[in-house]
């Protein structure tokens, strides 16, 4: 909730596209860092894992309102509901894909010769790889999102740049058609 409030407010001040990029980069870094949690002893692994997972959740909190706002500002009245529903329907597909990835990675390691000699060491790799895979959707989203212009509504109403808003609206209309 704190991430939603903070990044929603910041998106209104600095631009949705810019802050959405910040939240995505935060999610990528924290997903990768979660898998690379320091492992001198179990306590340090848990401490660093909790630290990076907290900041990952903070970034996800910012992603929710910005995703909904960006989609609603790009869509016209007729398609707005479908666009927002599509954004949040992707969460279910992401959860399904994550479950499939866990099963595949677990099966791959369980069938490896190294698992037979050191099962706990191999299990350590599995959860780390699974957590780091979470960076892939955020990286893909970051790439596609950064290619889109700032929403015309933000540019016109908050940044007060009507000429740029008209230009952004014409380029965005080709993206949403």
TrEMBL record:
PROSITE patterns documented for this protein: MFS (PS50850)
Membrane topology note: Multi-pass membrane protein
InterPro entries listed in its UniProt record: MFS_dom, MFS_sugar_transport-like, MFS_trans_sf
One of the GO biological process terms: phosphate ion transport
Iron-sulfur listed as a keyword: no
Location of this chain's protein in the cell: Membrane
Main location: membrane
SUPFAM superfamilies, A to Z: MFS general substrate transporter
The organism's place on the tree of life at top rank: Eukaryota
Sample GO molecular function, one term: symporter activity
Annotated Gene Ontology cellular component terms: membrane
Domain Major facilitator superfamily (MFS) profile: 1-177
Family: Belongs to the major facilitator superfamily. Phosphate:H(+) symporter (TC 2.A.1.9) family.
Pfam families linked: Sugar_tr
Entry's transmembrane regions: 19-38, 82-105, 125-144
Keywords attached to this entry: Membrane, Phosphate transport, Symport, Transmembrane, Transmembrane helix, Transport
Name of the featured protein: H(+)/Pi cotransporter
